[in-house]
Specification:
The protein is mainly α and 131 residues long. The chain has 4 helices and no strands. Helix 1 packs antiparallel against helix 2.
Length: 131
């Protein structure tokens, strides 16, 4: 059964039960009849959302990458790629994970280094430049 039909059936069941109760309670006051109707729709929507959650979970499982096979002790260590040589330039992929404070600190360091380089260049050129 398709996901849409599953959700539709999940909603229709409790709503149909509420409608039956409403037919049986024809003599009840308006407040009671309204409570029966709201209760039925609430249970129906809850069941429909549950079906949707199950469908989403199923799609996620279907699209998830397969887990890596577990190695046994007899197989020996896994081959590890060589680590790149470290450099003074930080890895750009890690910049996304830095928090705001560290980014601010790096920006301040960068401004200081830039000012230092400007001062050095100015002194080598013999220019008295203030920034």
């Amino acid at each position: 059964m398709a996901e849409r039909e599953r959700v539709q059936h999940a909603v229709e069941g409790p709503v149909a039960e509420a409608m039956k109760l409403l037919d049986e309670a024809r003599g009840a006051d308006t407040e009671t009849r309204l409570m029966i109707l709201i209760n039925g729709w609430g249970r129906g929507l809850s069941a429909g959302l549950e079906e949707l959650a199950l469908a989403v979970e199923g799609f996620r499982r279907a699209n998830a990458p397969e887990p890596m096979p577990q190695r046994t002790r007899d197989e020996g260590p896994a081959e590890q790629p060589e680590a790149p040589e470290s450099s003074d330039v930080p890895d750009d992929s890690n910049e996304d994970q830095l928090d705001e404070e560290r980014l601010r600190a790096r920006a301040a360091d960068s401004r200081e280094a830039t000012a230092s380089l400007r001062e050095e260049a100015s002194s080598e050129l013999g220019v008295d430049r203030k920034t």
